[in-house]
């Protein structure tokens, strides 16, 4: 005998347009297992939930304080599995080659001396652009601070647990799809010393002004149907306060607030905060 079916239409919050709409189905089988599919489930599915998807992507805004988005103590959520953060210029497509991601400046007046063209600049200025695993770590630390259960897929050492997470877990993937990064080497007055902007050592850049645009995609399983999609922006600037990194007698000569790591950590943290301030995203994390 067929189980009685309930049809629940739940439009994803935070999506602007219904253009390009396609159905995503969620249902529970007779054994209590939850399934997601872009195809209509079997007739004997216990409870069918139709989730509307669109090609639009919501743009999110970060809150001012972490306390506003920390997980309430009386709620439970599913474990979130983080895939490694990627940069759009790492894609093999020729369409993303030589993307302008920022501008080099030199001298006390921070005069513009050429654009950062990706992926060439990132490969030559590796210390200016953190690796994907570092960016993943920045997001991971904030999510844990917000008290949401999460783990990084690449850090699951047990092969079986990793396969299960990739097949059935809630997998969140972030991609840096836009970068507006100004860096200034105030003490470099003559670029001829290095030849090109890309050859200036990273420690010479003491001023950073960064705007990152991050695309977030949540799936059930690493290759499963998209459950949620949004973009957020994170910003950082020490343009008015950045001074020379090197001071006599200072160990290493490096000031923590003048580093590329500080800029990217701050920007990625704010972009992640915007994601966790979104009720539509948190609804997807709710324990079933």
How would you describe what is shown here?
With 288 residues, the protein is an alpha/beta fold. It has 2 domains: 1-56, no CATH class; 58-285, no CATH class. Helices cover 18% and strands 32% of the residues. The chain has helices at 120-124, 132-145, 159-168, 260-276, 279-285; strands at residues 7-11, 22-28, 34-37, 47-53, 58-60, 80-82, 86-87, 99-106, 111-118, 150-152, 170-185, 207-220, 226-237. Strands 5, 6, 7, 8, 9, 10, 11, 12 and 13 form a 9-stranded mixed sheet that branches. β2 and β3 form a beta hairpin. The radius of gyration is 22 Å and the shape is elongated. 31% of the residues are buried. Residues 1-23, 43-56 and 245-254 have low confidence and may be disordered.
Task: Please sum up the structure shown.
The protein has 288 residues and is α/β, with parallel strands linked by helices. It contains 5 helices and 13 strands. It is elongated, with a radius of gyration of 22 Å.
> Strand-and-helix sequence, N→C?
EEEEEEEEEHHEHEEEHH
Percent in strands: 25-35%
Q: From the helix content, strand content and strand pairing, which structural class follows?
A: alpha/beta
Apparent shape:
elongated
Helix share bin? 10-25%
Distance between the termini: 26 Å
* Whole-number mean pLDDT: 77
Instruction: Give me the count of strands.
Output: 13
Query: How many separate helices?
Result: 5
Number of domains: 2
Low-confidence stretches: 1-23, 43-56, 245-254
- Biggest sheet details: 9 strands, mixed
CA-atom Rg in angstroms: 22 Å
